Amino acid sequence: MPSWLRKVKSRVRSFSVAAAALPLAHVTEIAARTRAAHTGRTVGMAEVAAVRDMVTAFSAMDERHGGAHGRTALVQYLRDDIATLCRARHRTEEVRAQMLSAAGRAGLDLTRVQWTVSSHSGGGGHCIRIGALDGHILIGDTKNPDRTPHIFTPTELRAFLLGVRDGEFDHLVQPS
C-alpha cells in the first residue's frame, strides 16, 4: 500500500465524520489503476485518467472535511506516484503531454479560480479563459478545461496586454 494511502487512512480513522463519507474503496481502486509505471509497463490514457480522478478525490476530501487532509495526501501522491508516472515510458507524446498536464493540475487547486471569458467569444467555447490564483494569472482553453492552464506573473501579462493594445500581434489574427 502506498504511503500516501496509509496516511489518508490513518487520518480518516481519527475523524469519524470524514471516515463515514470518504470512499476509501474508490481511492484504492484509482490507486490500483496507476500501478503501470511501477511495474515498468508503458503508461497510457487510463493512467492519465486515474491521476485526474485521484486529484479530484483529494480535492473533494478537502472541500467536504477541511483540515487539509486531502492536500497532505496529495503531496505524498505527487511525490510517490505521479513523479514516477511522469518519468515512465508513455505510449505517445500526446499521452506524455496529458500526464504532465494532469501532474501540473495536481499542484494547483483550480477549484478556487474564478474564470472569465471574453464577451466576444459568442459563448461557443472558442475562446481562452483567464483567472487569478495566488498572485499569478492563469490562461486556459475553454475547449479543453481539463488541461493545465498557462501561468504568468502580472508583469508578464501586463507586457502582453500592452503589446495587444499597440497592435503588435494583429498580424496573427485574420479579420473575421
Automatic annotation (TrEMBL):
Pfam families: DUF397
Ranges where the DUF397 domain occurs: 114-165
Domain of life: Bacteria
Keywords for the protein's UniProt record, in alphabetical order: Plasmid, Signal
Signal sequence bounds: 1-20
The keyword Signal is annotated on this UniProt entry: yes
Protein name, as recorded: Putative regulator
Organism in which the protein naturally occurs: Streptomyces clavuligerus
